[in-house]
C-alpha cells in the first residue's frame, strides 16, 4: 500500500486581521471615512490649541447626542455641557428644526435611523464610518444627512464625506439618495455636491500610496 503524503500549507498572515485569543474574537482593520477625506483635505489636529480642540469635540458630542435623543424619543433634551449652555441649546433647536422642515413635505411612511455604523469593502479596502442620519421613505433610502457644528461650511470637503457615506451605505446599488449637510451653527440645510465613483476611487488609491 502506498504511503500517504501530507503537505503542510503555510497561509500568509493578513495584517488587517487581528485575532483576540482570550475572547476568541476576530477584528478587521478598516479605514474610516474621515481618513479618506483627510487625504484630499488634510486636517492637522496639532495646529489647533488643545483646549479649543477639546471643547469643539465636547460641543459636537453634546449636540449629536441631544439630536439623537430627540429622534429616538421625540423629546427635547437640553445641553449637558457646563460651558456655552445657551449656544448649544440654540444649535440643538436648529438641528431639530432643520430636519423637521426637511421631513414635512415628504409623503409616505418615514423612518429615521441615527448614528448607524456601516462598512463596505471597495477597491481592496475596507471602509467604515458612522452616519448621523438615514431617512427612509416607504422602506427605501431617501436621504443621508450629516450634522455640522462648524462656523464655516466647507462644501467640497463635506460633500466628499457624504459621498463616501453613500458608498458604504448603498454598496453601489442603484440607489441615489439625497445628501444633506445640516449646519446647526448657521442654521442651514445644504444639499451636497455630486461626486462620482471614479473620484472616490482616485482618493482611495492616493490613500493607499500614502499608507
* Structural class by secondary-structure content: alpha/beta
Approximately how much helix is present in the residues? Answer: 25-40%
End-to-end CA span? 55 Å
CATH level 1 name: Alpha Beta
Please give the count of helices.
5
Biggest sheet record: 6 strands, mixed
Low-confidence stretches: none
Radius of gyration (Å): 21 Å
Name the CATH architecture: Alpha-Beta Complex
Count the E strands.
Answer: 8
Q: How do the helices and strands follow one another from N- to C-terminus?
A: EEEHHHEEEHEEH
Number of domains: 1
CATH topology: Lambda Exonuclease, Chain A
Beta-strand proportion:
25-35%
Instruction: Indicate the mean pLDDT.
Output: 85
Salient structural properties:
5 helices; two-stranded antiparallel ribbon; 211 residues; single chain; six-stranded mixed β-sheet; globular; alpha/beta; Lambda Exonuclease, Chain A
Question: Which SSEs are present, and which pair or pack?
Answer:
Elements: E1 17-20, E2 25-28, E3 31-32, H1 33-40, H2 50-73, H3 85-103, E4 110-122, E5 125-137, E6 140-148, H4 155-170, E7 178-183, E8 188-191, H5 197-210
